[in-house]
What we know:
By secondary structure, the protein is mostly helical. The chain has 12 helices and 5 strands.
Amino acid sequence: MEREPAPRGPHPADRAEERVPPPRRPGEDGIGDARGRGAARGGGTGAPRPGGPARPGPAHPADPAHGAARGQDHPGHARTPLRRTSVRGQVLEALRTALDSGELEPGRVYSAPALGERYGVSATPVREAMQRLAAEGAVETVPNRGFRVLARTADDAAALAEVLFLIELPVLTRLAATLPALPPELRPLARRTEELARTGDRTGYAEADRAFHTALLGLHGNPQLTRVADALHRRAGSPRAGTARSWAEEAAQHATLLDAIERADTATLATVLRGHLGVRG
Length: 281
């Protein structure tokens, strides 16, 4: 008489399948259950191993230890990683101001460590800011030495003025034809440039001049165009006029441009803008 074969245990592959937990539903992380079971066994956060201490489970996002590991200032609030970017941004603005004022002299080479010591920062944010200025055409990289401030020649200035004219004239002409009324903030911006021109604040005037043109071009609604024009204004430098008298005249042209837009006087608009930007011919 044949004997029945003894029952076999589950195949190792079957055991592996049995140990696979069921898939969690969306929104479930299983953390709460693990913490509850651990607490019931004595405060542990994970299932205990046989004959050994409880194995720590995943930390809850609200745990202080978890926050420290993830770089949080306090539980439940992620730290905003702006510290490095903020330093670089501040250094960039400081360097732009130094370029506008002439503190950083054209043709001279400046090293990142020396500028970092001047501004009380490491060389890294200075290097990053200088690379941005190099992309804008304000400086050039000198291998193993630093960055040279580029001197703008008369031909450079004329070329930049022509490009700006080709960008701004179509925009302002369109505004003159379609804009129902000028926003109220434009007139104060124009007056601000005149005030700074009278006081001889070259750096302040450069910032106010760019703010005026940025606000005016921004009415077109194309942020890419506005950013390109702002970068060109930075490269061209401001004021474009060479004497104090012509500088004051240049500042007064901002209000004249606004008057021409309000009257939809495109002929005057083109003439004034050409002189304002310093276009030849």
